[in-house]
Amino acid sequence: MEPLLVTLLSTAATAVVKSLASSTWTRATKAIGTLWRRVHPEKTEAVEAELTQARVALVDARETGDDQVERDLIAEWQGRLRQLPVDAAQLAEDLRWLIDQLPLSDGTTQTTENVQMRARASGHGTVYQAGRDQHITGR
After folding, report:
1. Cβ neighbour number for residue 82 with a 10 Å cutoff
2. Residue 110 lies in a domain
3. Full-model pTM
């Protein structure tokens, strides 16, 4: 799978799960429902009900300090989102739309952009590029 899709899947799943534990959980459920109605309409009600169950589990886990439940839910939703469309371009578009629908914890929304990086090293040159954290250790 393309690195961009992996990043979008991770971001979208994290945004969905974090929204479940906030006052915007109905917005997350509605956004997921919109995607599922388009791709798998017969599964929409079940997916929305599962989101409600996930919300209950997440809220309970946060009250007890169990961080593992949130990590498990994020991994679960990465897998579910990955199964939406067959076409990678459509999946990327759907994930960007989903991310744009979900507010951040401060109430603002996040946006996604395509970033293209190009570099060329010559001779004995080395190029380091990162779209996120980068850790370079000795050779």
Report:
1. 16
2. no
3. 0.69
Q: Cβ neighbours of residue 127 under 8 Å, at least 6 residues apart?
A: 119, 120, 121
**Structural domain contains residue 79:** yes
Diameter of the chain measured on Cα atoms: 59
Query: What are 48-77's pLDDT values in tens digits?
Result: 999 999 999 999 999 999 999 999 999 999
Q: Are 40 and 54 in contact (CB under 8 A)?
A: no
32 lies in a domain? yes
Evaluated on CA atoms 62, 67, 72, 74, the torsion sign reads positive
Instruction: Report the pLDDT averaged over residues 5-24.
Output: 88
Domain span holding position 29: 3-101
- Euclidean distance between CA atoms 51 and 38, whole angstroms: 17
Question: What would the two tokens of residue 98 be?
Answer: 């989903």
CA-to-CA dists, residue 49 to 19, 71, 73, angstroms: 15, 20, 14
d(CA 105, CA 118) in angstroms, rounded, equals: 33
Mark out the alpha helices in the chain (DSSP H runs): 3-20, 25-39, 44-64, 67-82, 88-101
Q: Which two tokens stand for residue 53?
A: 């169950």
